[in-house]
Amino acid sequence: MAEDYTESFIEQLEKGNHGRVAQTGICFVNAFRKFFHHRSWMVLPMTAVLSLIAGLAIRDGFLTSLDGTMTGAFVLVGVCIWNGTYCSVQAICRERAIVREKKRLKLHSSSYTAGNMLFQLLVCIVETGIVMVMLRAAGIMFTGRPLFTGWFSVDFGITIFLIIYASDMVALFISALCRTKTAAMTILPFVLVLQLVFSGSVIDIPDSIDPIAMITVSRPGYKAMGAQADLNNLPIALVGNIMTELEDTPIDFSITLGQVLDLLSDADNPAVAKARNVKIGTITTVGDLNEQLLHDERLQGLRDTKIIGGLTIGVLLSEINDAHLLDDFKDRKIGMEITVGEAVDLLANSSQLDGFRNEGINVDTTVGEVLELLGREETQALIEEKAGMNYYDPAFEQTRESVLSNWTRLMILILVFAVGTAVVIKSVGAWNKRRRLA
What we know:
- This protein is mainly α.
- Helix content is 64%, strand content 8%.
- A hairpin with a 2-residue loop joins strand 3 and strand 4.
C-alpha cells in the first residue's frame, strides 16, 4: 500500500514539466493520501479526547477567575501544541527518499513545502473545530467580550487555530531536519517541554533568556488567551476559597483598648469605613416613652415598685396620664442617635480613657465573626485587589492591540518555520550532491 501512493506521487511528478502551482496541488493530494495511509487521521479523535479531558479539568474557573484562567490557558496551550506537532512531525521524514531525489523528479522545494502546508492548514482548521466543540461540551462558557468578530468564541477559536498551526509548522520543520521518524520523535518531547517552560505561565522567565521565549509558540499563545480573558481584572478564586475554609477557625488573642480604638479610627480602610457609618442609639418621643412605661409587660416589675407608702410607680404614671399633664410634651423627641465613627472618635479623644488605653482585652471569636464585623465582601475585594497587583501584566490588557500583537507573532512564526522547512528541503539535495562528488 505504501508503494502505491508513493509510486503514484513519483509518476505524477515524472509525467511532465509541471509548474510550481501544479506541483503544489500534486503534493497536496499526496499529503492527503499519506495522512490516511499512515493513519495520521488518528490525531483527530485524540484531539477530541484530550480537549474534552482538558475542558472537564479546567471548566470550574476558566474565564471566570484569575487563577482558574491562568491554569486553564496553560493546559489549553499544551493541548494545542501537542495536537499540532503530533500531526506533522513525521510528514516529511517519511518521504526522505523522495526529497533526496527531488532534482531528478524536478520537484520544487517551495511546491513541496506549500503542498504540505496547505494540507496541514486544513487539518488544523478541523482540529480547531474539534477543540472548540469539546470545550463547549465540557461545560466551558465562552462569555467574554469579543474584540474582532462580534463573537468571543470565534475570537478565541482564532487563537486556538494559530497555536495549533504554528506548532504544526514547528513540527514540519523538525520533520524536514530529521532523516528518520525515530529521530523526529526523539526531538519532539524536548521541543514540547521547551514550549511549556517558556510559556511564562508556570515560572517567570529571566531577562537573560527571554529572547529564547520570544521564538516559542506557547508564549504568544498564552498571552493572547490571557488578554482575551481580561486576566488583569478577573477575581482570584483562591482568596474566597481560603476565607470560606477558615470561616469557622477559632481566634483567641489579646488586644488593648487603644489598639481597638486606633483600628476603628482608620477611616481610610474601606471595611472600617463601612462599620463607622453604622448608626447606634435611638430617638423616641415623650408620648411613646409614656405608653411603653404604662403598658410594656417587660416593665411590670418597675410599675409595681413602691416609692412612697403604698404609692407605686405605675399608679403615679397613670395619675399623670389621666391628668393629661404630658399632652403638651408628647411629641417632644428625646434620646440620641450617633454613628459608630462618632462614638469611637469621642472615646479616642477622651482624656479620661488615657489610663485605660493599655488595658488588655481577651477576644475569643472566629474568623467568620471578624469578617462579618469588618465586612466580608469589602475585605475579600481588598485582598483580591492587593493580590491581583502581583499578577498584573500590561500584555493581558483586554485590547485589540494586545491580542493582535500576539496573533502577529504567531503568524510570523508560521512563516519563519515554513520558510525554514523549504530551505532545509532545498539543502537536502545539495548535501547529497556534495557527498556523491566526495
